[in-house]
Specification:
Layout (H helix, E strand, L loop, with lengths): L1 E3 L7 E3 L3 H9 L12 E5 L2 E5 L5 H11 L6 H14 L4 H8 L4 H7 L4 H20 L7
Antiparallel strand pairs: 1-2, 3-4
Amino acid sequence: MLRLRDSKSGQKVIPVGKSALAILTSQPRTADSGLIFPADKLGRKGIARSHFQGVDAIWYRVRAKAKLPDVRLHDLRHTAASVAVANGASLPMIARILGHADTKTTQRYAHLSDAPVRHVVEGLADQIAAAMSGVRARAT
């Protein structure tokens, strides 16, 4: 779990998948703080080591290296929601993953691609055709 002390909606806990956790745990930690993503924070007593404070500078480098100059972090949230809904996850489950209090917000994030929609339509059509002919279709 990723525990955020402060976010747009206050404190939150975000589930992290095993593959992401493996990447995070393999990263070197700073000797003085044990942080994976340290940041130097300027305070009254000078510069002090603090926790990670933002992603902008890193994200610009990642986008450049991946040759995806227009991809925003927010696009990744939409993609995650869309993949989850295409794999059959419920809107309340996706809302929890994204930290949404209301599934109406999640609906705006979760877009289905044509392939899973076609798959469901074909399954429905097969079941209806089988029912009309008196034959029981196999469930999809």
